[in-house]
Amino acid sequence: MTDSSPGPTERVLALLALLQQRQTWSGSELAERLGTTTRTIRRDVDRLRELGYPVNATQGVAGGYRLGAGRALPPLLLDDAEAVAVAVSLRLAAGGTVAGASEAALRALAKLDQVLPSRLRHRVRGIHDSISTLPGSAAAETVDADALVAIAGACRDLVRLEFAYAARSGASTRRRVEPYGLVATGRRWYLMAYDLDRDDWRTFRLDRLGEVHVSTWRFTAREHEDPVTYVHRAVTSSPYPHQVLVRFRAPAAAVRAAYPVAAVSVEPETEDTCLLRTGGDDLAMVAVYLGVAGHDFEVLEPPELAEICTAIGTRFERAGRGPQHPPRS
């Protein structure tokens, strides 16, 4: 009769896979999942430590084993779905907006592609070949990779940040903030934070940040809006001198499909109407932008936009009549 129980090597690899799945495991939980004893678990943990994996052990009711951070990055175990997701992400990152990330992504992708099984390599290439990126009218703004990592860590750990920030006017100020979340819109990265000196919530573009310093001052999280919702509203209208509100006589889903997600904010009003908020530097351009959606709308704010829409509509109506010959004398 053949013994179907895993050998020591297979068991250690299975233990490593479990430790990567969640933050903390008790010894009894690991023993139950692997069909062995807590004594064997302790011995396998020691083997992982010898291989360079920093497995930490804590005592007490909430104690257990957890995979910590070491001085060097040890090998990671990825299942098929995880390996495909990482490979596809690296391919997309090769053309991303983080300074230096393109080269690093290509190096990492080369290492991963070398060891990918043939079946997964074909899946990765199939997915990537089906994805296209449409370049916008303006180039994406690049951000410093080290700053991005530092800010993300500050958001996670709830510690204060200090940085230099360049406003639209070009003036530079020093900011002290409590960071809450990072949001990427495709062209730019934004930080949602509470500005301690201005005593209010603010949105910061990461490409305008410099001299980032992560303090050791921890803060208690304030009640706050979802960062995606807050940043979306801020970037669609707040930066512009003209704030626009219109009612579309069409379902919200149909109007959203007509515009980039970062350009407008659309809220359902009824099943057949919705409210759209946006902003702009030139109301005439906003009027044309609203008109290309292909749905009827009415201007709620500002009143001067309604006048501009009427003027443009009259001009378009005349253009649609064809050539107008001057009367003969």
State the order of secondary-structure elements, H for helix, E for strand. Answer: HHHEEHEHHEHEEEEEHEHEEHEH
Largest sheet: 5 strands, antiparallel
Q: Average pLDDT value? A: 80
Rounded to an integer in angstroms, the radius of gyration calculated over CA atoms is: 28 Å
How is the quaternary structure best described? single chain
State the strand order across the main sheet.
Answer: 8-7-6-5-9
Distance between the termini: 113 Å
Roughly what percent helix?
A: 25-40%
Keywords: DNA-binding, Transcription, Transcription regulation
Protein name: YafY family protein
Domain HTH deoR-type: 8-63
InterPro entries: CBASS_pafABC_assoc_protein, DeoR_HTH, HTH_11, PafC-like, Tscrpt_reg_HTH_DeoR_CS, WCX_dom, WH-like_DNA-bd_sf, WH_DNA-bd_sf
Indicate the topology.
Layout: H1 8-21, H2 27-34, H3 38-50, E1 55-58, E2 64-67, H4 80-93, E3 98-99, H5 101-115, H6 118-129, E4 143-144, H7 145-157, E5 159-166, E6 172-184, E7 189-195, E8 200-205, E9 209-218, H8 227-236, E10 242-248, H9 252-256, E11 265-268, E12 274-280, H10 283-291, E13 297-301, H11 303-320
Parallel strand pairs: 3-4
Antiparallel strand pairs: 1-2, 5-6, 5-9, 6-7, 7-8, 10-12, 10-13, 11-12
Helix pairs in contact: 1-3, 2-3, 4-5, 4-6, 10-11
